[in-house]
UniProtKB/TrEMBL annotation:
It is a peripheral membrane protein. This is Lipopolysaccharide-induced tumor necrosis factor-alpha factor homolog. It is found in: Endosome membrane; Late endosome membrane; Lysosome membrane. Belongs to the CDIP1/LITAF family. PANTHER family: FI16602P1-RELATED, LIPOPOLYSACCHARIDE-INDUCED TUMOR NECROSIS FACTOR-ALPHA FACTOR. Signal peptide: none annotated. Residues 6-88 form the LITAF domain. Keywords: Membrane, Metal-binding, Transmembrane, Transmembrane helix, Zinc. It comes from Limulus polyphemus. The chain crosses the membrane at residues 43-66. InterPro entries: LITAF, LITAF_fam.
Amino acid sequence: MAQYGQQTVVVVQQPSFGEAPVQTTCPNCHNTVVTTVDKKAGLFAYLMALIICLLFCPCFWIPLVIDSCKDTEHTCPSCNAQLGTNKRL
Ligand SMILES: [Zn+2]
């Protein structure tokens, strides 16, 4: 039974964090924010770098600078809390 007049715990349904910024409620500062996305070289980028290193040695750094090879990190613009990560692997 729902009880009115009491503070209810709002269960925030986490959106799926993808490549693009998403609107979510920050669990840290409880503001409704649009996440800031930051590209970070993750496992996928390093794995690609390793493969390219074996095949075309001088080009191994390319996956480390291409955004589509990187993980996407979502952070809250108001408190900078990390809200989620979209990993390539
Ligand atoms: Zn926040």
